[in-house]
Amino acid sequence: MTDEQWSQLAPLLPPQRPWTGRPGLDHRTVLNGVLWITRFGSAWRDLPERYGNWKTVRSRFYRWQPQGLWAQLLTRVQERADHAGQVEWNVHMIDRTIVRAHQSAAGAKKGTAMKRSAGHKADSERRAT
């Protein structure tokens, strides 16, 4: 994350907890770790060490989820970009990885039995003696 991007997001995050006891991981490192996970679709345990302990990043991610922080960040970033004229609201995009098609969408006709392959038929005629 660039310094400019961080300067826009930092005020939107909750206050950093005071340093009592063991110092906590700063929000910028955590946010970079979350962005790394979402970009590569990796497991939490595979998070590189430069982003801190994967358990810390994961726990903060899940702590912020019920607080609605991620939705607030998206809304505020969109509002700022819209105010600056950087958003085209008439352009839409759907990620195919989240849209599931029904099995009949693969070209199968409804109500017809599937034909078995010749290999399957030959295999079913064999009998053990």
TrEMBL record:
<feature type="domain" description="Insertion element IS402-like">
    <location>
        <begin position="1"/>
        <end position="73"/>
    </location>
</feature>
<feature type="compositionally biased region" description="Basic and acidic residues">
    <location>
        <begin position="120"/>
        <end position="129"/>
    </location>
</feature>
<dbReference type="InterPro" id="IPR052909">
    <property type="entry name" value="Transposase_6_like"/>
</dbReference>
<protein>
    <submittedName>
        <fullName>Transposase</fullName>
    </submittedName>
</protein>
<dbReference type="InterPro" id="IPR025161">
    <property type="entry name" value="IS402-like_dom"/>
</dbReference>
<dbReference type="Pfam" id="PF13340">
    <property type="entry name" value="DUF4096"/>
</dbReference>
<feature type="region of interest" description="Disordered">
    <location>
        <begin position="102"/>
        <end position="129"/>
    </location>
</feature>
